[in-house]
Structure formats: C-alpha cells, structure tokens
C-alpha cells in the first residue's frame, strides 16, 4: 500500500467513523477500488480506527478526566456512566467474538456493503419522519440508564454488518430509548472507546504479522495520523449540525451511494 493510499483511507476513516454512513463500508469500497482486498487490507481498515478513537479522547478529555476522578471518589454520576458504557459494549463484544470470522469471510465486499447502506438509509429516513416533531429532551450522557444502555448496545450489534454504521445504529438506539439526538450521538462517541478500542487491539494482535511487516508500518502510521485529525474535526462539526438539523440527509446519501455501488459492480 502506498503512502497516498494510506492517507486517503485515513481521510475516509476520519470523515465517516462518527457520521451515520458507515466507516467500515466506505473503507471496504475504497480499498476495493484500490485493489486492496486481502487480509492485510481488512486488518488495516480496522486498525486505523485507533486514530478516530484518540480523537474522541481528545474532544471529550475534560469529561473523561472528570469522570475518572469521580470514580476514585466513588461519585454516582461517574459510576452510572461507567456502567452504561459497559452494558452498551457487552452485546457487541460477544457478537463480535462469535461472528468475527463469518463477517470477514462473507460481508467484506461491495455488494453486502451496498445493501446495508440502502437498508440503513431507508431505516434512517423512516425513523426520522416518525420522530419528527418529538420534543427533544434536555438531557446528557448522565441520563443513560442501564436499560437505555442495553437498548443501544443491542442496536450496536447490527453494525457488525459493514455498511450498517455503528454510529447510525447507536444514535437510533438512543433515540428509541428516549434520548435527544445530541445526547444519543455523544453517548455513541463515548461508546466507541471500548467498542472500537477492543476491535482495534484484537485485530492488531491477530494480524500483527501482516500489519507490522517490512514496508507496512509507515502506511499504517500515516493512516492513523490522518484519521485522528480528520475525525477530531468531524466530531465537533457533527454535534453542531445535530443542533440544527436531523439525520435524514445522511439516509438519502446512503441510499444513493448504495445504488451507485450496485450498478458499478454489476
């Protein structure tokens, strides 16, 4: 993989990780366009998520530091958030361990990704219209109860299908659970820390021979750095966007991209 290809994949990862359009789906499509369809490419696509993970840590550093200090003081708000993140993470962790090989063998391709993009786009548009006019709660991530966390965690399992979008599934899960769109998105970002972190570390360990082979380290570093800075910018912009508009435009984009891909691979 050239450094330019690595930088472009890092750009795609950073742009799409926290938007409800599926970063994995976009990476699969772009990698396929570059002719990078092997085991090493799939591992690269997963591991460069580390850059996006670090972007969340930097963006929410004040909240994370406050909650970490709160845990040492046994503060109830900090404990509730930790429990919520653990419960939200658990379903996806189990599903990922059980279905990892099946998913990589059958779903990492343009056609499955395109179908997931289209179905997810339709779901987003329908959900947005059904909830249109619903008063947005004045809430925060501290209001994510164990029940709400489990609902979001269950929805996150659907994102194992590349193209479904972890962000979309968890934001919709939060909305269904009664959270405002902004709070659902912020909890989705925080939930990405254990979820994406575990997937990244596991994949890095399983694929260390190809990821850290001669000539492969520098492209990996470039992809990580680019994804970090781009994702950091996207997080702040997306939260501002959600304060003014809904998710329906992303649904339209998903459907259009999915149809285009299906026509392209015929």
What attributes does this structure have?
266 residues, mainly alpha, 13 helices, 0% strand, globular
Report on this model:
Helix 2 packs antiparallel against helix 7. The chain has one domain. It is 77% helix and 0% strand. The chain contains 13 helices and no strands. The longest helix has 31 residues. It has 266 residues and is an all-alpha fold. The mean pLDDT is 88.
Describe the protein's topology.
Layout: H1 3-16, H2 23-34, H3 39-47, H4 49-59, H5 61-72, H6 76-106, H7 110-130, H8 146-157, H9 166-176, H10 181-206, H11 208-211, H12 217-242, H13 248-264
Total helix count? Answer: 13
Order of helices and strands: HHHHHHHHHHHHH
Strands, total number: 0
Sketch the major β-sheet: none
Provide mean pLDDT, rounded.
Answer: 88
Level of helix content? Answer: over 70%
Count of the domains: 1
Low-confidence stretches are: none
Rg (C-alpha, Å): 18 Å
Q: Strand pairing plus helix content: what structural class?
A: mainly alpha
| Overall 3D shape | globular
Percent strand: under 5%
What oligomeric state is this? single chain
The rounded distance between the terminal residues' Cα atoms is 26 Å
In short:
With 266 residues, the protein is mostly helical. The chain is 77% helix and 0% strand.
